[in-house]
Amino acid sequence: MRERTRAFLAHRHFQRFIVGVILVNAGTLGLETFPAVVERHGPLLTVIDHLALYIFTAELAAKVYVERAAFVRDPWNLFDTAIVAVAFASTAGGLSVLRSLRILRALRLLSVVPSLRRVVSALLRAMPGMTSIVVLLSLVLYVAAVMATKLYGQSAPNRFGSLPTSLFTLYQTMTGDDWGNIAREVMSRHPSAWIFFTIFILVCTFVVLNLFMAVVVSAMDEENAEERAALEDTTAHTQRILDELAELRKEVAELRLRAESAAGAAAVVSESRTRPRAARRRGR
Predict the structure, then answer these.
(1) What is the CATH number of the domain that holds 52?
(2) For labelling alongside 165, which of 129, 178, 237, 242 has CA 20 to 30 A away?
(3) CATH at residue 166
(4) Is position 261 within any domain?
């Protein structure tokens, strides 16, 4: 029974069904943000929401039955359990904050869709490398904010009047949000300020931020390489099993042929011995 349940959970049709339930549930939760839709179809949306939650709960219960102790050793199972637990808390509670957490059920796509799971795994793998880049970026921001506060704090107090204000302005500049107007406002009193902004944008946007992309891409390449290696190992193991089966079949065929040959030879010998006896009996 357990093996049948395992095969049912791993079947692609069941996986597609779960993906469909997640998408439908996410769509109904989005429709609940429209007051007119809630007024006309509120009970139906609630029924669909509860039905999706029960399906997710039944799936988790089946996984616990199949995997037993191994269930808690899989991080994705713990992630799904946390999402469903939050969904039950939001259903039981009346707070709008808890009810808004129901949309977290859409995140179950991360554990159901293999491609999304690989992306998340790559991001987690890239975290150690990204930590060093975050420290570097923070250092560059801090140095630039101190310089900007001292250089342009008096002429542009609303942009660089204090260190926290300068940090926010430079972060806005780094993201490319309206940085042109910020630079023009400062350059109206400091014409050479373009040098500061150009160097800052080149260092932060075109160097440091691209390092994030490089680390993530490298982690994704490693993840794909490991999957390919695992697939090749599985294929090689399967091929070895098939080769061994072919050799066993060949040996069995040879043994059968030898047995048939031995049986034929024994029959000939037995017949050759019985013929003289029969001839002597006839002579008598």
Answers:
(1) 1.20.120.350
(2) 129
(3) 1.10.287.70
(4) no
